[in-house]
Amino acid sequence: MRGQLILIEGLDRSGKSTQAGLLTERLAQAHSSQLYKFPDRSTPIGALINKYLTDSSFQLDDHSAHLLFSANRWELYTELLQALNDGKFVVLDRYIYSGIAYSLAKSSLKHASSELGDVDWLYSPDKGLPKPDLTLFLSLSIEELGKRKGWGQERYELEQFQKEVKSCFLRILDPSKDSTVHLVNVEGKSIHEVQQVIWDVVVEAGCDKLTELPVQKLD
Ligand code: NYM
Ligand code: MG
Q: Which fold has domain 5-204?
């Protein structure tokens, strides 16, 4: 039996980190659970990513940046897989869909996607990573995001760019094509209300229980 892999995705300041923390605590009431946040800035590649995000004078080609974010996930790959197989529930605060959406929103990387929605180049470095058993995208309006505290301190935290990222997320996260994907509307909801909605989805999907299914890989 193994633990389940649950991913929370969303724009900057959408409440992901708060909700991922609360979900990890809730799961811990019955199981062992662990939270992983991406980018993980504590690793060698994570330190480079942190510099890229916080120092606007530090430039990287957009392709290189994209590959670094994926490499950062591979740095944690063995540990994450081991945790799941040891029966731990793993909650992810961002993962591959952030990787695709933030890159796809850059005009320089539009060529990496076709009009038919093929994001093959952007997706390929993540192939082979564990596939989340459940993905929740926290959705809210750009207007409400702009009002939230701490906005505008890092690279990408610009209203126009976030708007583009949101439409990219909605393009790649389609619940009608993947039943493990759920969109959660958090507009106007309190932290507690959002937590309850998330928990209901987790329970409904059976992701609050250990499973016998082997860990799926992104392919
Ligand atoms: N980000 C995050 C990416 O551009 N690609 C990725 O693969 C991941 C995981 O990093 N603006 C971006 C999104 C965020 C930024 O993340 C920092 P956070 O969750 O704000 O620390
Ligand atoms: Mg952020």
A: Rossmann fold (3.40.50)
Taking CA atoms only, the protein residue closest to ligand 1 atom 14 is 12
pLDDT digits (tens, 9 = 90+) for 118-142: 688 999 999 999 999 999 999 999 8
ipTM attached to this prediction: 0.98
Neighbours of ion ligand 2 (CB under 5 A): 12
Q: Which ligand is nearest to the CA of 42?
A: 1
d(CA 44, CA 172): 29
Contact 28, 90 (CB under 8 A): no
For the chain, give every domain's residue range: 5-204
What pTM, to 2 d.p., does this model score? Answer: 0.96
The closest alpha carbon to 203, from 6, 1, 2, belongs to 6
Does the pLDDT of residue 175 top 60, yes or no? Answer: yes
Choose one of 49, 54, 92, 102 to mutate for the ligand 1 pocket test, by most ligand atoms within 8 angstroms of C-beta. Answer: 102
